[in-house]
């Protein structure tokens, strides 16, 4: 079988701990007939167990040199479908068709945030997501107002999904060992958005600009979008800082701005 050395430019750290693999698969709990998508299968540590469930599994792998390794291991499985390419450019909705995908991945830490935003944009085609991420990213995804880790990623993830941190994964579970602690997170799209916005692009802009200078007050960070008087009319203090606002507050601001456009 072809051997493969982890490549730093792809952010590769291959999971090899059997106990952690079992915990991840148990958390996903795949079942026959379901549609699964694994992003960055690597050398197939989790892939085999996902296939054993009887679910149909599509995998997206960027590294061309890993393709023959995966094909050698799994090409004889009828429920295995390999796509070589960049997950950031992949049309998730087209792949899903009429059946929402359950997405799984040990995401390269260097692209985890843009990839999560890419997947959130396709949340209508996704049933749930289970990811291995840098623990710091999981903390940001699940952060609540008032937390130092609360920011753009958490607000937008929670707009679309319920976020649940599951368990931590130590560096020694990987080869090579990463220099950071990892964790598993579950993202489950809301059946009904708790605070629907009139325009997602406007909300994204408000959240981005609010946290772009997070130490400044809303009066300063949002002065090009909304006046202090308008913020007060919404029951939001112009002297508040962005980490003090709940998701519902950001949606209220975005809706007010959208009405004025």
From TrEMBL:
Function in brief = Specifically dimethylates two adjacent adenosines (A1518 and A1519) in the loop of a conserved hairpin near the 3'-end of 16S rRNA in the 30S particle. May play a critical role in biogenesis of 30S subunits.
Molecular function via GO: 16S rRNA (adenine(1518)-N(6)/adenine(1519)-N(6))-dimethyltransferase activity; RNA binding
Instruction: State if Cytoplasm is listed as a keyword.
Output: yes
Alphabetical list of PROSITE patterns matching this protein: RRNA_A_DIMETH, SAM_RNA_A_N6_MT
Any idea where this protein resides?
A: Cytoplasm
Q: Name one Pfam family in it.
A: RrnaAD
Sequence positions that bind S-adenosyl-L-methionine = 13, 15, 40, 61, 86, 106
Could you list this entry's UniProt keywords, alphabetically sorted: Cytoplasm, Methyltransferase, RNA-binding, rRNA processing, S-adenosyl-L-methionine, Transferase
Tree of life domain:
Bacteria
What this protein is called in its record is Ribosomal RNA small subunit methyltransferase A
Q: Which SUPFAM superfamilies match?
A: S-adenosyl-L-methionine-dependent methyltransferases
From the UniProt record, list the reaction(s) this protein catalyses: adenosine(1518)/adenosine(1519) in 16S rRNA + 4 S-adenosyl-L-methionine = N(6)-dimethyladenosine(1518)/N(6)-dimethyladenosine(1519) in 16S rRNA + 4 S-adenosyl-L-homocysteine + 4 H(+)
Q: Which organism is it from?
A: Spongiibacter nanhainus
SMART domains associated with the record: rADc
Give the Ribosomal RNA adenine methylase transferase N-terminal domain ranges.
20-191
- Report the transmembrane regions from the record: none
List, alphabetically, the GO terms of the cellular component aspect. cytosol
Q: What is its EC number?
A: 2.1.1.182
Chief location of this protein? cytoplasm
**CDD domains reported in the protein's UniProt record:** AdoMet_MTases (cd02440)
EC class? transferase
| Family according to the record | Belongs to the class I-like SAM-binding methyltransferase superfamily. rRNA adenine N(6)-methyltransferase family. RsmA subfamily.
């Amino acid at each position: 079988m072809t051997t493969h050395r982890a490549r730093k430019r792809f952010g590769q750290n291959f999971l090899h701990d059997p106990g952690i693999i079992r915990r991840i698969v148990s958390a996903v709990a795949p079942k026959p007939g379901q549609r699964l998508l694994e992003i960055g299968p690597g050398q197939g540590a989790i892939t085999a167990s996902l296939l054993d469930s009887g679910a149909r599994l599509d995998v997206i792998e960027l590294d061309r040199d890993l393709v023959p390794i995966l094909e050698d291991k799994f090409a004889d499985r009828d429920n295995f479908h390999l796509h070589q390419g960049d997950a950031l450019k992949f049309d998730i909705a087209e792949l899903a068709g009429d059946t929402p995908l359950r997405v799984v991945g040990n995401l390269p830490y260097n692209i985890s945030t843009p990839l999560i935003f890419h997947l959130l944009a396709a949340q209508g085609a996704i049933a749930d997501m289970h990811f291995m991420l840098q623990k710091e990213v999981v903390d940001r995804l699940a952060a609540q107002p008032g937390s130092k880790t609360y920011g753009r990623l958490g607000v937008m993830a929670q707009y679309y999904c319920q976020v649940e941190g599951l368990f931590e994964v130590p560096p020694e579970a990987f080869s090579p060992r990463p220099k950071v602690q990892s964790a598993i997170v579950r993202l489950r799209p809301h059946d009904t958005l708790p605070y629907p916005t009139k325009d997602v692009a406007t909300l994204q802009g408000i959240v981005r600009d609010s946290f772009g200078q997070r130490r400044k007050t809303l009066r300063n960070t949002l002065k090009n979008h909304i006046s202090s008087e308008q913020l007060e009319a919404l029951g939001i203090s112009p002297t508040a800082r962005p980490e003090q606002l709940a998701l519902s507050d950001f949606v209220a601001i975005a809706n007010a701005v959208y009405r004025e456009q």
